[in-house]
Write a structure and sequence with these properties.
The protein is of the alpha+beta class. Helices cover about 20% and strands about 30% of the residues. It is built from 13 helices and 38 strands. The two termini are about 40 Å apart. The structure holds (2R,3S,4R,5S)-2-(hydroxymethyl)piperidine-3,4,5-triol (DGJ). (2R,3S,4R,5S)-2-(hydroxymethyl)piperidine-3,4,5-triol binds next to loops.
Length: about 700
């Protein structure tokens, strides 16, 4: 049984295949005490609450204990999960345990405030085979007055240890997902966003480990399924406990819960592994494929797209796009995407956002002329939009200058010459749904790229009461998903790509609504190896788009060989951003070959397990291996730059994830040989690379 209960207390034991999570209601302290999160234990009856004694008046039992979900109230000075103010001014919550229910691998714990009709319901769901625990919280106001929620985290997790390492990513536009690990010392460490989106800066997750490697050691991890302002707080207490709380950021946040109203906080997904970081990544990858990605497309392999953004930017015309489409079809592209610049008065980034109809000069016969041509050439058609924004120079803004976020007596600040639409207004949401619906209805569009190119500023919404202003951040995020949800319902076959100036909205909340992400605006293949490595730690490869673009790279000015660029982009969902009109016949032939090769391996890349065998962060070579069902594998190796002539340019690399008893055929560009799985994993193979920006792919196939 995956969920057991020791009824007297009650203590709950939630079991995955390899791990256990234990907590219960301690009547003595009237608290939901956390007991255990570690290797699997079979019997709930073996667990009990350890006695707790106050050390002094300064160290309360509630601060010393681990609470699975702590209210702010009484003698608690730690990071609480929930904080509220009642109508009479009381700012203290006291939990009362009502009952629990276990149904379909979901444990529901019903709590209430002891005095006020304020109900807090906690949900715990276990996916046994993946050892992933989902947690979410619902609150309900059955008082006759408003309750002001000042903080509502989704979950708290505890490890009764100190000296742990935290792994996160840091980054910025065009430099996302840069992995780093740091030792945690007593005190509080916060990763957050205050920008209205997930942001390029950090990711809404935590990873705690001690001496763990890619393949060994204990790793505790958890993600928040939310795309707005988030907060991950890691507290190393004076009592030698490491605790994590994660949820909606409480910075500039309040939510007025009206009488009769319910509010559900975003979900958190967590896991524990004894098999290092790769086991964590592969379980989350599988979890995303099976449970998170939108069902309409999760079972389908992602198509190879062409996007002309880097090649042409705003300077597009129907003739030029048709010329590109003809070549794209010849080289094997499956989806042709027109990016920014097709609509309204959009000739640069200074106009047009909000006017979601074709620019008459660029598309005199509307979009249908191009779409028909693209479809006749055998490709799907896709298009770019940035619905949350408006350009001051647009018909939409001229008609509705009051549809933006702003404060009274303040000028709204533009960024990239654009303002953010106030999505908390129903009429704004309605306008966007109808405009985009019309676009999808009237045109045979199979793919929509949803972009968001600046954070929210001056977060004021004149349509909301003063008391509701700080709920704006949350409402905005919900509105984005409402709109995407409405479009998906009407157009279930359309593939949605999430983008926010590259990878500014990559998270498990967005993953429920978007089929894939534009990972970064940085398409420099070498930089991309680092970005993709950071991404792969927590997010599924099937959602990681990667384009091959022109050199010198438009952002970094670096020149890398076509092979290197392709091999890097083939590690995710391959796309092309090269200016095909400038390619020689020979280059097009090479590109065609590579696309053909990707089609042969993409099922392994997009749906297989991933092993980060060697990283440029720590070594001279970068090696990543993908394995599907222990039968098929693809092995990518990169050498950044040659160092000293005397160094042997031969690298011995041990493979991962194969069946030791099976014989495999290894096929490289100029080689083909057979080896047993145990040899490949224990002795390894030798790869030879010399020079700068070298790369190679090996295909490994069970006989
Ligand atoms: C930012 C995106 O990340 C790019 O791919 C491109 O779509 C531009 N916006 C267009 O403005």
């Amino acid at each position: 049984m995956s969920i057991q209960v020791h009824k007297k207390t009650p203590i709950f034991l939630i079991n995955g295949e390899k791990s256990s999570y234990v907590f219960g209601w301690d009547a003595k302290f009237q608290a939901l005490r956390h007991i255990y999160w570690d290797k699997r234990v079979s019997n709930v009856k073996d667990f009990e609450f350890l006695p707790l004694k106050e050390l002094s008046a300064n160290e309360s039992e509630w601060d010393i204990m681990m609470e699975d979900y702590a209210p702010w109230g009484g003698r608690r000075y730690k990071t609480p999960c929930i904080k509220a103010t009642f109508a009479d001014g009381t700012r203290d919550i006291v939990f009362e345990f009502l009952k629990y229910e276990i149904r379909d691998n979901i444990l529901t714990v019903y709590l209430k405030d002891r005095h006020y009709n304020f109900f807090i319901t906690l949900y715990y769901q276990i996916i046994e085979k993946l050892d992933i625990l989902s947690r979410w919280v619902e609150i309900e106001n059955k008082e006759s007055n408003d309750i002001i929620i000042e903080n509502l985290y989704s979950a708290a997790f505890h490890v009764p240890e100190i000296g742990m390492d935290s792994t996160q990513v840091k980054g910025y536009w065009a430099g996302e997902q840069q992995l780093f690990t740091e030792r945690l010392f007593p005190g509080r460490k916060i990763f957050e966003s205050r920008k209205g989106t997930t942001s390029h800066n950090h990711s809404p997750y935590f990873i705690l480990s001690k001496n763990a490697t890619e393949y060994e050691g204990e790793v505790y991890f958890g993600v928040l399924a939310y795309s707005g302002n988030f907060k991950v707080s890691i507290d190393v207490s004076q009592y030698d406990i490491t605790s994590v709380t994660l949820g909606i950021n409480d910075f500039d946040f309040t939510y007025r819960l009206k009488p009769g109203e319910k509010f559900t906080a975003p979900k958190a997904y967590a896991g524990y592994s004894t098999e290092g970081f790769s086991d964590m990544s592969n379980r989350m990858n599988q979890f995303a494929l099976e449970y998170i990605l939108p069902k309409e497309n999760s079972g389908k392999l992602r198509k190879i797209l062409y996007n002309s953004w880097e090649a042409t930017e705003f300077n597009i015309s129907v003739d030029q796009q048709i010329k590109l489409a003809k070549i794209a079809a010849e080289i094997g592209i499956e989806l042709f995407v027109v990016d920014d610049g097709w609509f309204g008065g959009r000739n640069s980034d200074s106009a047009g956002l909000g006017d979601w109809y074709p620019n008459k000069e660029k598309f005199p016969n509307s979009l249908s002329e191009l779409i028909k041509k693209v479809n006749d050439l055998g490709m799907d058609f896709g298009i770019w939009v940035e619905p949350e924004m408006v350009s001051p120079d647009s018909n939409l803004y001229r008609l509705h200058p009051d549809w933006i976020y702003n404060f009274p007596n303040r000028d709204p600040t533009t960024a990239r010459n654009q303002l953010v639409l106030n999505l908390t207004r129903d009429e704004v949401q309605e306008y966007l749904i109808s405009a985009l619906d019309k676009l999808l209805e009237e045109n045979n569009i199979a793919f929509l790229k949803w972009d968001m190119n600046r954070p929210i500023s001056e977060p004021g919404a004149l349509n909301l009461d003063r008391i509701d202003q700080k709920s704006l951040w949350y409402r905005h995020t919900q509105a984005v998903f409402n709109i995407v949800g409405a479009l998906r319902r009407n157009h279930p076959n359309v593939v949605f790509e999430g983008c926010s100036s590259g990878g500014g909205r990559v998270d498990y909340g967005a993953l429920e609504h978007f089929d894939q992400f534009w990972t970064s605006d940085n398409t420099d293949a070498l930089d991309r190896l680092y970005i993709q490595e950071g991404y792969s730690v927590m997010y599924p490869i099937k959602a990681m788009c990667a384009w091959v673009t022109d050199v010198p790279n438009c952002h970094t000015k670096k020149t890398t060989p076509l092979d290197f660029r392709f091999h890097c982009a083939m590690m995710g969902v391959l796309g092309l951003g090269i200016n095909l009109l400038k390619c020689s016949e020979e280059e097009l032939e090479m590109i065609k070959e590579k696309i053909k090769e990707y089609k042969e391996i993409r099922h392994v890349v997009q749906e297989g397990k991933l092993y980060r065998i060697s990283s440029l962060r720590k070594s001279e070579i970068h090696v990543v291996q993908y394995v599907l069902d222990e039968r098929e594998s693809v092995f990518f190796a990169f050498l950044k730059g040659q160092k000293y002539i005397s160094l042997p340019y031969q690298y011995t690399v041990k493979m991962k994830g194969l069946d030791p008893a099976v014989e495999y055929t290894i096929t490289g560009k100029d080689s083909k040989y057979k080896k047993n799985g145990d040899y490949l994993m224990n002795v390894g193979i030798n790869i030879y690379m010399i020079g700068d920006y070298q790369s190679q792919i090996l295909k490994i196939q069970a006989k």
